[in-house]
Design a protein that fits this description.
- The complex is a heterodimer of chains A (424) and B (127).
- Chain A is of the alpha/beta class.
- In chain A, 31% of the residues lie in helices and 26% in strands.
- The longest helix of chain A has 23 residues.
- With 127 residues, chain B is mainly α.
- In chain B, 65% of the residues lie in helices and 0% in strands.
- Chain B is elongated and about 75 Å long.
- Classes of the chains: A alpha/beta (424), B mainly alpha (127).
- The structure holds flavin-adenine dinucleotide.
- Flavin-adenine dinucleotide binds next to α2, α3, α6, α10 and β22 of chain A.
């Protein structure tokens, strides 16, 4: 027997109703199967889509809007650059999500009609939602670094978003002349993956040490201090002595200009001639968050911690890098954790599913050199207005090599675990 | 009141006695079975509730521990014996074991939460 679409949604709606009632549902739910739309199939969005589809057992219709057919993780892209991973190993398809009940639509969300509760796609199609989850990651403020632009990113790749930039960066490092200079410009706070720029420096040093050992790495930071600083600087001295110079703004006086033609980077201190480089500009929530009117004056989306609901629209949840998660860093781990809290809140609201106290956690592993892994992490709780850390930890300087190796092995395990949890 | 059974022949009184005994036993047995099975149902419900709670809590574990039961640098916790799971988690909670990720996670879990997780993971079959 075949159901027409209408009969089908009527039946599943009815089963949602009984499910809801048996779970002591507080309210009456419509006969139609509720719609959840998720914008962005990254660490946050794909997790939320998968958990809602899985845990609602078909009672909620989930549509995921994501332009890319394959998601290349930014996490472990540094390990790819360092030669510890091949590029294919950090790519993930949406095929399993589709078989697990998520309607995956490869398109851009171009606007959100909040009054009608519809997402408008690049194709012009409109997708109605009862709840919308927005997880578009970040966009870059290219102009925040004078002289930097989309075009200049073809010379000085940012490699800070999923895609081919990491491959371009690796190719340019490998093509550097012998004894050449690599210039890295890390972003100002707040930004995606606080230890990321320094793990990148470590991995480029690792690559150069083998292929071009006289080369130098100059880091022109836009901050006075950085994540896991003591650990990274200890590791740089140990594994790459004399190779890496790090200058904070109090030393270089600020980036005055980046010239992609002459390959010159001008600061108060000096003009640096680069043979290759990476510029990571200031960041903001992915553009669609702004278009939908969800961002604050700083370009990020304020949320209610317990549910990850937008402070400006109760039918919209914002998770991952785009949200203001206060004590939680912008990481894939954090996005995945927030996605599960959000998925539960959405199921509770739409089908009356039982909800539990929200739980948040994060750990960021970084690789400094072969078998030299470090980590930083915390547990968090949903405070009234902010997500607050309850307990924190960080690797220590001077740890035994065996522990560092174990930490690295653990990061490999985490990568396998989280990518399975995100993409099924 | 006159007990009419005294009027019956004695063999019939015996019969009645037996009928009475047997029916009382059946009644008791029925009661007992009913009681036991309702208790079993209650236990089963409670167990399912714990599994459901454990499954919710497990969201935090499966970010790192593969739900398929394979281990790649992080040990598998799928299909572990309840006893083992509980004692390892308590060792982390008491900081007798030293992995910082695990001591942090474990110290945020109550005894009931650890039990629910143990019951849930014991119920999952490695793939
Ligand atoms: C070099 C580097 C190293 C990192 N290392 C780690 C690490 O070791 N551990 C860790 O936890 N995190 C790490 N991160 C951070 C991690 O990658 C991000 O925090 C995480 O991806 C955030 O998830 P998200 O869902 O917010 O955004 P994303 O994962 O970026 O996903 C956003 C998705 O939304 C899509 N999208 C955007 N706009 C639209 C639109 N209008 N319509 C439809 N789709 C749209 C995009 O195509 C993208 O797929 C690293 C990042 C970098 C750059």
């Amino acid at each position: 027997m075949k159901f027409s679409r209408r009969q089908f949604s009527f039946l599943t709606g009815a089963s949602a109703l009984t499910l809801g009632l048996s779970a002591n549902a507080p309210a009456v739910f419509g006969a139609a199967r509720p719609n959840v739309v998720v914008i962005g199939g990254g660490a946050g969005g794909a997790t939320a889509a998968r958990y809602i589809a899985k845990d609602s057992k078909g009672a909620i219709h989930v549509t995921l809007i994501e332009p890319s057919k394959r998601y290349y993780t930014c996490f472990f892209s540094n390990l790819y650059i360092g030669g510890f991973r091949d590029y294919a190993s950090i790519g993930h398809s949406y095929a399993t999500l589709a078989t697990q009940g998520v309607n995956v639509v490869h398109d851009w969300a171009v606007s959100v009609d909040r009054a009608k509760k519809e997402v408008v796609l690049g194709s012009g199609a409109r997708v109605p939602y009862d709840r919308l989850i927005v997880s578009p990651g970040i966009d870059l403020k290219y102009e925040s670094v004078p002289g930097y632009s989309v075009a200049a990113a073809g010379v000085f790749p940012h490699a800070w978003k999923s895609g081919t930039q990491a491959q371009l960066l690796k190719a340019r490092v490998e093509a550097m002349k012998e004894g050449g200079n690599f210039v890295m410009i890390p972003p100002p706070n707040p930004f995606r993956c606080p230890p990321g720029p320094y793990e990148r420096v470590s991995m480029i040093a690792h690559l150069l040490k083998q292929k071009n050992p006289k080369a130098k790495i100059i880091v022109l930071d836009q901050k006075e201090k950085f994540s896991k600083q003591g650990l990274f600087q200890e590791g740089w001295e140990k594994h790459y002595p004399g190779m890496i110079e790090w200058h904070p703004p109090s030393v270089h006086g600020g980036i005055k200009n980046v010239n992609a033609q002459t390959m010159e980077i001008e600061t108060d201190l000096d003009t640096f001639k680069a043979d290759a480089g990476s510029v990571v500009p200031a960041q903001m929530a992915g553009n669609i968050a702004q278009v939908a009117g969800l961002t604050n004056e700083k370009g990020w989306c304020s949320i209610i911690p317990a549910t990850m609901q937008s402070k400006v629209d109760e039918n919209i949840h914002v998770i991952g890098d785009a949200s203001v998660a206060s004590a939680m860093p912008k990481s894939g781990f954090a996005a995945n954790s927030q996605a599960k809290v959000c998925a539960m809140a959405v199921r509770g609201a739409l089908t009356g599913a039982k909800t539990f106290a929200p739980r948040f956690a994060n750990t960021c592993w970084s690789l400094i050199a072969t078998n030299d892994g470090v980590k930083v992490g915390a547990k968090y709780k949903a405070g009234e207005t902010k997500i607050e850390a309850t307990e924190k930890f960080i690797s220590k300087t001077g740890e035994k090599a065996s522990l560092r190796k174990q930490t690295y092995m653990e990061s490999e395990g985490w990568y396998a675990g989280i990518t399975a949890d995100i993409f099924g | 009141m006159l007990d009419i059974t005294v009027l019956l022949p004695s063999y019939m009184r015996w019969l009645e006695y037996w009928v009475f005994l047997v029916s009382r036993t059946i009644f008791a047995a029925v009661l007992l079975i009913g009681f036991a099975s309702s208790k079993a149902v209650a236990n089963k419900d409670r167990n399912e509730e714990k599994i459901a709670f454990g499954e919710y809590l497990s969201g935090e574990c499966v970010t790192c521990h593969l739900i398929s039961g394979t281990s790649k640098g992080i040990p598998s916790i799928v299909g572990l014996e309840i006893k083992t799971f509980v004692s390892v988690m308590h060792a982390y909670k008491a900081r007798k074991l030293d992995n910082k990720v695990m001591t942090t996670i474990a110290s945020a879990l109550s005894d009931e939460e650890i039990e629910a997780l143990a019951i849930y993971f014991a119920s999952v079959k490695p793939r």
